Amino acid sequence: MIKLQCLVLCCFTIGAFASKVPFINKCAWADKACLTKSSQDALLHFTNGIPELGLEPMEPLTLKAVTLKKDKLHIDFSDMVWVGPSKCVFKHVERNAPEKWLDIHLVCPVDLTGHYVASGHIPPIAIEGDGTFHCKTEEAEFIIRVGLVPYDKDGDSYWKLSCSDIKYSFDFKKKTLLEFLNLFGGDEEKAAPVKKLLDQNTKNLVNDIAPPIIRAVVDKICTNVNNFASQIPTKYLEIL
């Protein structure tokens, strides 16, 4: 009778976890093609959000506040909204089991809006403004390496991402729009040199301005994924 009860409980537990993540196609960690496809198949579920599993919606992805301080340039960004995470395409996902890291290569459209307050210089041009900013491109490439930290809880194995140790690079591969509205309080004559610089040197300026925003995006996604991973034992996520 006890054995039967244990069997029923075990089957119930397995069914409960499996029903929570039917969108996860389990892969052997060495199977790069499976990992890449499984990541793509699960993307919409992650971006739509699964509150009962700790996943906040990420389409659109929102950020509260980020500050850029570089040389003589200071920009406070706030109330940001990125439309496009659900349209990302995973190009490559790979896990190194002995060294416990995960590599992710993906491309995403970026349509980011928010509020900015700027002061200082984008050498050699002065900039000052308080208003709306907009950054848009059809294809931004992101290459990410993050550590995987295994741990045990209640007799099961879990993993979490080492969010503080993430390494990443980015490249806006296609033509990019970068605009700041209400420069110099709407003084078009003073704003003209800045607008010209933004139009003619967009890629370099994005490389200078984007890092703290991208860091905030990466941190938010990493925290969200860890909230999910803390709910589901690894045996329901991988082929051992």
Describe the protein.
The protein has helices spanning 2-20, 32-48, 188-200, 202-209, 211-229, and strands at 27-28, 61-70, 73-83, 89-96, 101-122, 125-153, 156-161, 167-172, 176-180, 238-239. By secondary structure, it is an alpha+beta fold. It has one domain: Super Roll (Bactericidal permeability-increasing protein, domain 1), CATH 3.15.10. Strands 2, 3, 4, 5, 6, 7, 8 and 9 form an eight-stranded antiparallel β-sheet that branches. Strands 1-10 form a two-stranded parallel sheet. The longest helix is centred in the N-terminal third of the chain and has 19 residues, at 2-20. The radius of gyration is 22 Å and the shape is elongated.
In short:
The protein is an alpha+beta fold and about 240 residues long. The protein contains 5 helices and 10 strands, in the order H-E-H-E-E-E-E-E-E-E-E-H-H-H-E.
β content, as a range?
Answer: 35-45%
**Quick one: biggest sheet?**
8 strands, antiparallel
Shape: elongated
Give the distance, in angstroms, between the N- and C-terminal Cα atoms: 31 Å
Question: Percent range for helical residues?
Answer: 25-40%
CATH fold title:
Bactericidal permeability-increasing protein, domain 1
CATH A-level architecture = Super Roll
Oligomer: single chain
Number of helices: 5
Overall number of strands? 10
- The Cα radius of gyration reads 22 Å
* Unreliable parts: 1-19
Order of helices and strands: HEHEEEEEEEEHHHE
Category by helix and strand content: alpha+beta
Specify the CATH homologous superfamily.
Answer: TULIP domain
The average pLDDT is 88
CATH class: Alpha Beta
How many domains would you count in the coordinates? 1
